[in-house]
Automatic annotation (TrEMBL):
Primary localisation category: endoplasmic reticulum
Domain RING-type, chain residue ranges per copy: 44-84
PANTHER family registered for this protein in UniProt: BIFUNCTIONAL APOPTOSIS REGULATOR (PTHR15898)
Membrane topology: Multi-pass membrane protein
Keyword list, A-Z: Apoptosis, Endoplasmic reticulum, Glycoprotein, Membrane, Metal-binding, Transferase, Transmembrane, Transmembrane helix, Ubl conjugation, Zinc, Zinc-finger
Function noted in UniProt: Membrane-bound E3 ubiquitin ligase that plays a role in several processes including apoptosis regulation or reticulum endoplasmic stress. Has anti-apoptotic activity, both for apoptosis triggered via death-receptors and via mitochondrial factors. Contributes to the dynamic control of IRE1/ERN1 signaling during ER stress by inducing BAX inhibitor 1/TMBIM6 proteasomal degradation. Promotes the activation of TGF-beta signaling by mediating the 'Lys-63'-linked ubiquitination of TGFBR1 which is critical to activate the pathway.
Broad EC category: transferase
Domain SAM intervals: 189-256
A Gene Ontology cellular-component term: nucleus
Name the record gives this protein: Bifunctional apoptosis regulator
GO molecular function: ubiquitin protein ligase activity; zinc ion binding
Single GO biological process annotation from the record: proteasome-mediated ubiquitin-dependent protein catabolic process
Amino acid sequence: MLHHMEGDSADDDLEEVMNEPLHISDSHQSKPRTSSISETEFSCHCCYNVLVNPTTLTCGHNFCRHCLAQWWESSHKTECPECREKWEGFPKINIMLRDATEKIFSETVEKRREEIKANPKISRSLLAFQRYGDKLGRSKTVQNKGAGFFFSGVLTALTCVAVVVLVYHWGSGVVEHQDLLITKPVSHWTPEEVVSWLEQLGPWTESYREPFQLENVNGRLLLMLGDEELLKPPFSIENQTHRRAVLAELDRVKTLGVKPPQNLWEYKAANAGKSLFLLYALKRSPRLTIFYLYLFDYSETFLPFLHTCCPAITHIDNPVESRFLYDQLEPSWQQWAEFLVKYLVLPYQLIAEFAWDWLAVHYWTSRFIIVNAMLLSVLEACSLWRLWTTAPIRSLPQKMWNHLWKMLSQGFAFALMWPFIPQFVCNCLFYWALYFSPIINIDLVVQQLMHPETQAR
């Protein structure tokens, strides 16, 4: 019995000894573990401060969100600033590490957050970095659309077929028939073609058509008519404004040798390459395109364009037939001032106003142009706002020069390639840009306006 008691006592002492080192070891381990935590273990290897919104890359390194954004913006590289390994996808904030740093170094993290928010340069870098990530996400979504992407491709294919059918229908229809006088010399016009030319001047010529028909006035006789011949019988155009309008158009016909274009389709038939160039260039650079019209197509296109968009106050109440005269007058300084303001600030509004004036001639086409001009104005405003908020002012001249060089080089390349482009392909591109570009621009505007403006926490 005594032996058992001694054994039990020895066992108790052994258990006590074994438990005691464990307790001491735990206490020694817990104390150094807490005391050894320092800011250097949770510091960013770019700024060497405590991590704020720590972002973990695929290589395992952690950086502040704003430090990574500034590195990406300055280097334009998707690689780790420390080991130079490229990251995959778009880096995300490490939530667990962020919560740990906020609990352990709450005062330091909060102070750094306030400094980051007060720095506009860092805010712009974060916004640009987030937009880059959103763009990657949208492209990845497009790649993984599956059935939606398939149906989008089908819709694009059907649209291309619709353009081809439209070109074929209009190419063999009424439009081509009306283009005859644009390419046929005036001296070869028949009496029927002279009457057709007179009819296209406006409804006010209805009372003068019969004398031209009875006299069988052909192209040669038309070129010989003057003010006295039109005033006397059998033409008897006693209205001085009507007579001046006919003579003004007759002078243009004599100068050109053919009938000048009087609507969009005739202008396209007479200037196929120029119309396609203007249509695409207006989307990318309306100011350069209008300046191009001023330099190379002043009397035939630029003056009517300016008088339509910025009419003279004294000419507003004039009848329709007098517009042939006023379109060739030199604009007043008030018209030039109004035009220059619109040209610099709202160039697409000039196009919309010009299309609005042609609603009676091109009903649906003018509406497509007006809608497209509005959409392009919104896109330009979004681009300017993005440039203002994300890029320094000193980079603006460089961006303007790059844009100018790009437009000039594209125009030069178009001038070289144009003679080799088949007319059917040119027509397809023309109608695509005219009628289906607004649909594409609607999607671009929605993306710009619905863009999530996320900020770093």
